[in-house]
Amino acid sequence: MEYKIAVIKGDGIGPEVTQAALEILDAVGEKYGHTFHYTEVLAGGCAYDVHGHPLPEKTMEVCKDSDAVILGAVGGPKWDDLPGDLRPEAALLGLRKGLGLFANLRPAILFDALKDACPLKPEIVGEGLDICVVRELTGGIYFGERGMKETDMGMSAYDMEVYSEMEVERIARVAFDMAMKRKKKVMSVDKANILESSRLWRRTVEKVAKDYPEVALDHMYVDNAAMQLVRNPRQFDVIVTTNMFGDILSDEASMITGSIGMLPSASLGEGNKGMYEPVHGSAPDIAGQGKANPLATILSLSMMLKYTFGLMEEAACIEEAVMSALNEGNRTGDIAAEGEAVLTTEEMRTAVKKFL
Ligand SMILES: NC(=O)c1ccc[n+]([C@@H]2O[C@H](COP(=O)([O-])OP(=O)(O)OC[C@H]3O[C@@H](n4cnc5c(N)ncnc54)[C@H](O)[C@@H]3O)[C@@H](O)[C@H]2O)c1
Ligand SMILES: CC(C)[C@H](C(=O)O)[C@@H](O)C(=O)O
Ligand SMILES: [Mg+2]
Asked: Could you say which residues bind Mg(2+) here (predicted)?
C-alpha cells in the first residue's frame, strides 16, 4: 500500500529524532511492502525564520491533504520574545485545532529493561506498568479568551478556561472506549473543588460513564493526582483530563518510564487522520549534539501505523524492536545508568533497526 504523510521536523532536536524515526519507518515499509510518501513542510521557529509565520498556509494545506502528520518538536529560546501568535508553539496549537485533533493519547509504559532508569522504587512500579493519559487537546485554557488590561494594580493578564459539554463528552468517550480494551478503569482528573469548568467536566464524565457500566470511574483532584502518580502509579489505567492538566501530568508520567525521551503520542480526531509526535520538546540544551533519545518519536510512528493505517503487525514490529534494543542494553544518555555506555541518536536508531 501507499501512504501520504506530512513531515514537520521542527526545531532543536526535532530534525534529529524525526530523521531517525523516518528511517525506521522506511525499513518497516520495505519489510512489509508499503511505501510511505513524505512531504516535508515547515512549522515552528524554522518556519517563522523563512516565512515570517510559524504555521504557513502551505503547511496546513499539505497536512490536510495527508493521511497523517509526523512532528518532531517546535520552539526554542531564539523565538521566546515573539508575540504569542508568532511563537513556534502557536503552530502546534494551530495544527491541533485546524486538523480537529481533540484527543491526545499519551501512553506511559515502563519497559522491563528500563526499571533502573525509573526513579521510583521497584516495589512501587512492580511489573508491566502501563498508564494511558487521554488529554483533551483543542479546548480549555489553551484556547480560551486571553488578553491584557490596565488595572489599578498595573497591567493584568488573563487566560480563560472554557469547556463545553460536547468537548468533554467526546474526550470522555475516547477514554472509556480505550479503558474497555484495557483494565476497564478510568480516572478523571480535574479541579472541581475550585473551577466551574471542572464541575461541568465531572458531571459530563459521570453522564458518559452510564454508557459504560463495565468501566470503573473515579475522580481525583489534579494536585492529588500529581502526588499519587509517584506514590502509587499502579492504581491508574486510563487517566482522562483537560488540556493543561494532561500536559503537566504526562510529563510527570514520562519519568515513570525512565525519561521524557521515551513517551510517544497520538493526536486524533473524528476520522483516521492523526498527528504523531513525541511528548518532549525541542530540548535546546542538547540540540545538534546527537544526544537526543529517538525512541519517543519511533514509538509515535508505531502509534501512527496502528491508529491511522490499521497496520497492527507493523506497529508491533516497531514496539518489539524497541524492546529488543533496550533488552540488549542500548541506551542514550537520558536512560543510561551510571557507567553504562551512551549511544548517539543515530546509534540508537541503528540498534532498533537491527531488530526489525
Ligand atoms: N511538541 C512540541 O513541539 C513541544 C513539547 C514540549 C515543549 N516544546 C518546546 O520546546 C522548548 C523546550 O522546552 P522544555 O525545555 O521545557 O522541554 P523539553 O522537553 O524540550 O526538554 C526538557 C528536558 O528533557 C530533555 N529531553 C527532552 N527530550 C529529550 C530526548 N528526546 N532525549 C533526551 N533528553 C530529552 C531536555 O534535554 C531537557 O533537559 C520550548 O520552546 C517548549 O515550548 C515543544
Ligand atoms: C509546546 C506546548 C504548546 C505543548 C503543549 O503544551 O501542548 C507541549 O508542551 C506538549 O506537551 O505537546
Ligand atoms: Mg508538554
From this structure: 223, 247, 251
Give the number of the atom of ligand 2 that is nearest the alpha carbon of residue 251: 11
From the CB of 92, is ligand 2 less than 6 Å away? Answer: yes
- For residue 80, the tally of other CB atoms under 10 A from its CB is 12
One of 247, 306, 307, 334 is an active-site residue; which one? 247
- For the question of residue 247 being annotated catalytic, the response is yes
The interface pTM score, or ipTM, of the predicted complex is: 0.99
Annotated active-site residue 130? The verdict is no
pLDDT in tens, 124-133: 999 999 999 9
What are the backbone dihedrals phi and psi of residue 62, each rounded to the nearest 5 degrees, phi first? -65, -40
In 3D space, the residue among 220, 247, 259, 251 whose CA is nearest the CA of residue 236 turns out to be 220
**How far is residue 285's CA from residue 73's CA, in Å, rounded to a whole number?**
14
Cβ atoms of residues 92 and 276 within 8 Å: no
In this structure, which topology does domain 1-102+270-356 adopt according to CATH?
A: Isopropylmalate Dehydrogenase (3.40.718)
pTM: 0.98
- Are β-strands 185-190 and 216-221 bridged in parallel, bridged antiparallel, or unpaired? parallel
> Does residue 45 line the site of ligand 1, with CB under 6 A?
no
CATH topology identical between 1-102+270-356 and 119-256: yes
What is the pairing mode between strands 185-190 and 238-241? parallel
Domain positions in the chain are: 1-102+270-356, 119-256
